[in-house]
Specification:
By secondary structure, the protein is an alpha/beta fold. It is about 35% helix and about 20% strand. Helix 7 packs parallel to helix 9, helix 7 packs antiparallel against helix 11 and helix 17 runs parallel beside helix 19. It is globular and about 80 Å long. The two termini are about 50 Å apart.
Length: about 525
């Protein structure tokens, strides 16, 4: 399969004069092109200004679209009938390519452009969590916005950064010289002068010379005027063991890996290059194209409410985003002894001769081979758009999602407030923990098993939220549950089905239920869990 890589600027097609004006986007693309070629793909770079309507209409090639300002309108329209992804380096859905001046980075509708082009892409590949959140807030929920988790560096440049990463520091502060007003060199110099900071202005068109200069600064001062989707120069400063003085417009700072520096960050970047290109390559696969990278395994729990199982599965089969598979984890109970699980409509049934209680289903989820896991209590009946609601929320606020969110006030569980299907929250709400219906990345399950629970009897929801935050810096959120659109709800029959005598949280069980949960909360707080009220 031919792959046509389209961009306003391409390193290998640039003259020596043009090459000096290319930046981070083009260097990212160059690494991507070369890595895909090493994997056997036939990549044909093409400047966007040279892409013709005839070329698009007369090829079955796959298109990778990078910066595309010079694409003709009729070419953009024709591309929407083809297979393509967009590697987004800034904000080309906005007329100004910049949303920094707008409240919450949300562009007014009158400035939005190219929206159908983004909607019809198999994926819109962004660079960091912050970049992903901003792009997702501006594009329709039907757009598949995917965080690549960083930028790409060539091995030659990483070797240069490695060479200078241990250079002895000579000056306290470094400021980058740039004639580009968005880099705001004048503001950084003014900051140094106003605070009597010893500083040096560094800058050179030659990468190694610039790295040499920057490596001799203890801290790097950088105050961009626009949102930096990643900000290569700041990441490079971290690789050179420089401290960073900046504002809240650095996308890289939203990534967990940004806490690394020096050789650790260089080594991570080498490995992350492969991860990023793996993601891009994955979109070339026919199955990934069909599912747009959104595969979900659903895990249901069967114990004493087997009479609800068929309805649950029917509702999940009717989701607007179809799960790849539906599994049923069966905890042993005599109430279900005569139930025929082979007729329930699940893809997999995991029968047990023991009641593993709440943690068993989380162990089963480790066997899934999809990016996402959706898990439901046995009394939870989702609306048909619940999984789509979760995917859209992930683009804006990536974390453990749930149908009911709990906000704690201290060590006692009964002193809490709730968000979710019971309150019809209109917006995404951050909470301390979630339950009833979970949605999370399968890879996050590893955090749940990092510490042995203080009790296996209860509170797996608390334990998961605690350990995901502690070991993965992962927060918990409740997707919108608008009263005006019940199809987005995680639970349409919560008050009807969740209050019967089979529930573990019924009043007659409170003498066991609350002390167990209090014990888990106390253990979590003593070992590093931070409640939202204290953060």
């Amino acid at each position: 399969m031919d792959i046509i890589f389209v961009s306003d600027g391409v390193v290998e097609l640039a003259t020596k004069e043009v090459l000096e004006f290319l930046g981070g986007a083009e260097f990212y693309d160059d690494v991507c092109i070369k890595e895909l070629r090493t994997r056997g793909h036939n990549i044909k770079p093409c400047l966007s200004r040279d892409v013709t309507l005839e070329l698009v209409q007369n090829t079955e090639a796959f298109f990778i679209i990078s910066n595309f300002i010079q694409l003709k309108p009729e070419v953009i329209e024709a591309l929407q009938e083809k297979r393509y992804i967009i590697i987004e380096h800034d904000h080309k859905y906005c007329l100004m390519r910049n949303v920094s001046d707008f409240k919450d980075f949300i562009s007014p509708a009158k400035y939005l452009i190219n929206i159908p082009f983004y909607e019809n892409a198999i994926a819109v590949c962004t660079q960091t969590k912050l970049h992903t959140e901003v792009v997702a807030k501006n594009l329709p929920s039907t757009c598949n916005v995917v965080n690549m988790g960083g930028s790409l560096w060539s091995e030659d440049n990483l070797a240069i950064l490695e060479k200078y990463s241990t250079i002895e520091k000579e000056v306290d502060y470094g400021v980058m010289h740039s004639d580009n007003p968005i880099k705001n060199t004048a503001r950084s110099i003014k900051h140094c002068e106003e605070n009597n900071l010893e500083h040096r202005v560094v800058g050179s068109p030659q990468f190694e010379k610039f790295v040499d200069q920057l490596s001799r600064c203890r801290k790097f001062i950088f105050f961009p005027t626009v949102l930096e989707t990643c900000c290569r120069v700041v990441v490079e400063a971290r690789m050179l063991n420089c401290g960073i003085v900046t504002n809240g417009l650095i996308g890289a700072a939203s990534e967990e890996w940004f806490k690394l520096k020096g050789q650790e960050l260089i080594d991570f970047t080498r490995s992350n290059n492969k991860v990023i290109v793996d993601k891009i390559e994955g979109f070339l696969d026919a199955e990934s194209i069909a599912n747009k990278g959104r595969e979900i395994t659903v895990i249901l729990n069967a114990y004493r409410r087997t009479h609800l199982l068929k309805e649950q599965i029917e509702r999940l089969r009717s989701q607007t985003i179809k799960p790849k598979q539906i599994w049923v984890w069966v905890n042993h109970h005599e109430d279900a002894a005569d139930y025929d699980f082979s007729a329930c409509g699940a893809d997999r049934v995991l029968l047990n001769d023991h009641n593993w209680k709440f943690y068993g289903r989380f162990a089963a989820a480790l066997l899934a081979d999809t990016e996402y896991i959706a898990m439901f209590d046995d009394d939870t009946m989702p609306g048909k758009n619940w999984l789509q609601n979760c995917l859209q929320t992930m683009k804006v606020k990536e974390g453990i999602l749930g149908g009911i969110g709990v906000l704690l006030q201290g060590e006692k569980y009964d002193n809490h407030t709730r968000e979710g299907w019971a309150t019809h929250n209109e917006e995404i709400v951050e909470v301390d923990l979630v339950g009833h219906a979970w949605f999370f990345k399968r890879e996050w399950l590893s955090h749940l098993w990092r510490e042995k629970p203080v009790t296996w009897e209860n509170a797996e929801d608390i334990q998961f939220a605690y350990l995901a935050q502690k070991y993965g810096n992962i927060s918990s959120f409740v997707p919108p549950h608008p009263a005006s659109d019940p199809t987005k709800s995680s639970s349409l029959k919560g008050y009807e089905l969740g209050v019967d005598s089979k529930a573990t949280s019924t009043p007659e069980n409170h003498h066991l239920f609350y002390p167990q949960r209090d014990l888990v909360i106390k253990n979590a707080l003593e070992n590093g869990w931070k409640l939202l009220k204290d953060r």
